[in-house]
Queue: 2 jobs
Job 1
Amino acid sequence: MRRILAAAAQAPSGHNTQPWRFAVEGLRITILPDLSRRLPAVDPDDHALFISLGCALENLVVAARDEGYDAEVDDAGLDGEAPALVVQLRPMQAVDSRGNGLRAAIPERQSTRRTYDGRAIPSADLRRLESASRQDGVGFHLFTDAGSIEPLVELVEEGNRRQFGDPAFVEELVSWIRFNPREVRDRQDGLTHAVMGLPSIPRWLGRVVMTRFVTPGSQARSAARAIRSSAALMLFTTDRAGPRGWVHLGRSFERVALTATTLDIRQAHMNMPCEVSELREELRRHLQLGAAHPLLLLRIGYGRPMPRSPRRPLAEVLLEGPP
Ligand SMILES: Cc1cc2nc3c(=O)[nH]c(=O)nc-3n(C[C@H](O)[C@H](O)[C@H](O)COP(=O)(O)O)c2cc1C
């Protein structure tokens, strides 16, 4: 059970908040949102929080299968006052190795924020990502040519300008950056200086850098450069706003991220146009998405790995007794 829960806790989450808690009763696991880890500035409706729970759920299901359990997921509780996901594990009758390749990718997967090497991804591998994405109510779109990527670069740049021009966004981001090894050790969460490619510095200096030297313009330019070094962009949409649709999207995204990892394909979020509500509308109109909500945009490509991101000890995310 510990191995299964540890795999769930290795999931990605917005700003590495790790906004989950797990309650275990026998073979029944309840996944609960930890609302003390919300991101009100960048994620006021909590969609990224529930996408992150969906990622944790997908890891849990993949790891359970690898340990010889079928996982039956009950997500009906997500629509209630106190949203929760329940997973019932049952020992498998026959051994099933379907998830095994993905199991090994769980500790390997990472968000890799460096520039990539510009190489294209073979179409057979793009098709594997596409088929990994399949999930009820979730849309998956790939953009591989400059004609379709460039209009999205403009929206990413505009999103960056608006977010870094908003003091509440910058303040929240600074509060989740761990600027030196001591902060990393004490908290085991957030965005470390190493994963962001920054040197180790004291917090006061980090704040000065983030508020004076990281400007809306400089961020927009570096995001555009990063996208142009990548092979493709991928967008995830959901037909249903609300925790259930968001969790489904998270499962789809995590399966794609794990599949990409098995193919040595790196990924990094470029969510800015999905996070700023007017730009999300513009993105929806531009891509003629109808009623679908575009919620995650990532670039993919090839490059060396970055340092790993920390996770809190399991004891901190386990609830004693029934939920
Ligand atoms: C829903 C969601 C939204 C995210 N948004 C961003 C983002 O806007 N920018 C970014 O650089 N990373 C983003 N990330 C990546 C997280 O910061 C990353 O998963 C976390 O720091 C843990 O690192 P890891 O993915 O390398 O394990 C997002 C992840 C999730 C699940």
Job 2
Amino acid sequence: MTRLAARYAELIDGGELRPDPQQAAAVAALDDLQDRLEARCADRGWIARLLDRKPDRTRGAYLWGAVGRGKSMLMDLFYETLKIERKRRVHFHAFMIDVHAALKKARQCEQGDPIATVAQTIAKGVRLLAFDEMVINNSADAMIISRLFTALLDHGVTVVATSNRPPRDLYKDGLNREHFLPFIATIEAENDVVALNGPTDYRRDRLGDAGLWHVPNGPAATAALSETFFRLTDYPPSDQAHVPSCDLALGGGRTLHVPKALKGVAVFSFKRLCGEPRGASDYLAIARTFHAVIVVGIPVMGPEMRNEAARFVTLIDALYEYRVKLLASADAEPDGLYPAGDGRFEFDRTVSRLLEMRSDAYLDLGHGSDATTAGD
Ligand SMILES: Nc1ncnc2c1ncn2[C@@H]1O[C@H](COP(=O)(O)OP(=O)(O)OP(=O)(O)O)[C@@H](O)[C@H]1O
Ligand SMILES: [Mg+2]
């Protein structure tokens, strides 16, 4: 038994994870991949690398299934316990943003094929690339991904990915999908496709019945939200002082400090999100990155807070579009948040969305936009 299988067994024995046959099968597949990757990296000294220009490939893995089935959790365990140096784990969306930026640069200053140049740069540092939440919903990504992946595989990079869709459903109904089909064929040929699609949505279980919307703001609401945060992230509450933070890239070199960010869950104050000048693109960056967002300190907004109310509307639109789970503390239920002022009419839509975002049907949806559009 290697480290991944041992670690998984430990978590089951310790009661942190519940036994799950589909997860056990995925662990076996990933465990085998760990062995192959580690053996290969150990074998290949610098002479072998020098002589062998086209390295042989190690088959990767593609984990797919409905939300909360443990895909990211297993990928993280696999990644943490994998004993090779050259590995990289990225959120797929962030990776594609980097790729587009690198392509733009390559087009400006290079001759030849920019995709080949970018693939070479990426491949230089890595043997294993782990992608969380692979989703293709715009034609710009669909057009480059196939060639980029083939090039990465040719460089000997092994890919592990998680997705809510099986490969055959990626970019479903997308524009010019026929150009995308070779990518699906490549994934199916080069990866073990593993379904993690059991009956239990563990994230949902962890949300429990604690409630998503806490009224009013105050110590009881804070305690309830904090309890949910620790349950969602598996972080020990005793170590509250050291919850990681992050700086989220917003584009154009700007960043947004996220005071608590862990395992796709972020905590913000209403003040930081809606009290400062921000626009839709900032909120979309948040919505794409986090599957659950906790907003604390939502006040009742008077007419003088029309700017805050307008930003709040934009924020909720973005979270809703990306099916982000929203948890909040507020001084009123949604319909009492903005009783009067400019844009009150539009606010009705937000109230309705907020109510829908608490429904079972909404909570069962996966993270991410399902809109397949020509652009993004
Ligand atoms: N067997 C299990 N027993 C208990 N909790 C589990 C189990 N598997 C996963 N979890 C927990 O369920 C939550 C959701 O898991 P995870 O984030 O890996 O889901 P996912 O499949 O990646 O979902 P999504 O498609 O939304 O990204 C995590 O907190 C994880 O630790
Ligand atoms: Mg996930």
